[in-house]
Amino acid sequence: MKYVVLTLLFSSCLFAQDTNAHLWKERVIIISGNEAARDTIDAQFHRFESQLKELRDRKLVIYRCINKFCVYYDSKSKPKMFNREETSENFSISLFGLDGGKKFSSTEVIESNVIFNLVDSMPMRRQELRNKQN
């Protein structure tokens, strides 16, 4: 059990280096897993793929990672591919807020509206919406 906790903490720290560039600019969705979880990762990604307007409006970017290989999607430019140090384990999806804090995590495929509703309930997002109305 200690090994699992340490692995999760270590993986989060390494991946945090990649996501620090988004602090205070974008919210980050990370969809990850190992090769055995590829179909689940694809199913989760496809729930967001057709929601470009909603992703852009909420300042959401997506990292789709299988093992050490990741693709970054920002709905504005072509996907960017890169390798990372750690290997993904079982399927997971996580949401990080503008402040870089983890706001949501699941090991099951979820509908895109779960993330959208969660983001819409965040104080910074509510302020963004109020500013749009003015």
TrEMBL record:
InterPro entries: DUF4174
Segment forming the signal sequence: 1-16
Keyword list, A-Z: Signal
Name the UniProt record assigns to this protein: DUF4174 domain-containing protein
Source organism of the structure: Winogradskyella jejuensis
Domain DUF4174: residue ranges: 21-128
